[in-house]
Design a protein that fits this description.
Length: 341
């Protein structure tokens, strides 16, 4: 069993690579971030001196010392590039969406097993502070039998995205494949596979060719109903998480600070990294034995995407099962690929 850092490469250095992968791979002692694909402008060396920049994926994959490839390119390229990396004998950390159909997902898993390599999904928002707070409240049982849960991820962006691949009707484009994987993964990780579902999508921005609104209604045992909703024309968003149970309710805003901190250049190793600001606590309302209701703030523990990289390292170096399981990704892809009602 090797104890050497995992020699790692990025397939792009856009927002995903710059914010969500490179800072963690460079700070984690279990990884050695060595190289990147930069097809046009070479700029990663300005942030990471000594990084090797390749003009093509083929040239990067030809490096026999490379062990792990992060596929963080546009969504419609994930399937092809993940296959290339696996066939080259590399482990793959694959950005969401991991695929645009169940068939693609099954093909990738089969190839990973054939090559004896790990295919790991990058679902970082399992480690958001706000969702961590939701998980702790649900698992504590304080709400009693859960009746309904609402997860929302809203933005106000009426203008079309300048990244054309996000706005063209290609496989994996649209809001459903952009933010849907986050909400679906959170729901599945907390509640498991739904018994059934309904899906609604819509296009509301002027000139939009892709969905910019979606809502999924998931049905679970014991009467639990879960709604996952996202829109790009929400000027005044409400709570990101609302849960109602027989013994109480819980509300939590989308308050995880990690993306904002990373945009400001804060290191994942900084003492205040992932800590929510005072006043952003969730609201927990519980029924007392006498039937009276009492509401109090519920502070969240810090979020930390480094835990995803810890898990990836444990899987690759020690064979520890990765927390984002194959069946969960298949369930996610079934929901993403299904026709809307």
């Amino acid at each position: 069993m090797s104890t050497a850092p995992i020699r790692t490469a990025l397939l792009a250095y856009g927002m995903s690579g710059k914010l969500f992968q490179a800072p963690f791979l460079s700070a984690h002692p279990g990884f050695d971030l060595q190289s990147v694909v930069e097809r046009t402008e070479r700029r990663m060396h300005l942030d990471y001196p000594g990084i090797r920049s390749y003009p093509s994926v083929a040239e990067l994959l030809a490096d026999p010392a490379l062990e792990l490839v992060v596929v963080n390119t546009p969504s419609n390229t994930h399937f092809d590039l993940a296959q290339q990396a696996l066939r080259a004998g590399k482990h793959v950390l694959l950005e969401k969406p991991v695929a645009t159909s169940v068939a693609e997902m099954q093909t990738l898993w089969a190839l990973a097993k054939q090559m004896g390599r790990h295919l790991l999904a990058y679902q970082n928002r399992r480690w958001d502070s706000d969702f961590g707070a939701v998980r702790r409240v649900v698992e504590s049982g304080q709400l009693g039998q859960l009746i309904e849960a609402h997860f929302r991820f809203d933005r106000y962006k009426p203008a079309l995205n300048t990244k054309k691949f996000k706005e063209e009707p290609l496989p994996g484009s649209g809001l459903l494949y952009d933010l849907g994987p986050h909400l679906i993964d959170q729901a599945i990780s907390l509640f498991g596979q739904p018994l059934g579902f309904h899906k609604t999508t819509g296009q509301y921005r002027p000139g939009s060719q892709v969905n910019d609104f979606f809502s999924l209604h998931l049905r679970y045992p014991k009467g639990l109903n879960v709604w996952l909703t996202s829109g790009l024309l929400v000027a005044d968003p409400g709570p990101a998480y609302v849960l109602h149970g027989a013994q109480g309710s819980y509300k939590k805003g989308r308050t995880d600070p990690q993306e904002a901190q990373l945009l400001q250049g804060v290191s994942p190793l900084a003492p205040d990294y992932g800590h929510e600001k005072s006043g952003q606590e969730g609201r927990l309302t519980l029924a007392a034995a006498d039937g009276h209701l009492a509401t109090h703030p519920e502070a969240a523990a810090p979020g930390n995407y480094m835990q995803l990289f810890d898990a990836a390292h444990q899987t690759i170096r020690r064979g520890v099962p990765y927390p984002i399981r194959e069946e969960e990704l298949l369930w996610q892809n079934e929901l993403l690929a299904a026709d809307a009602d």
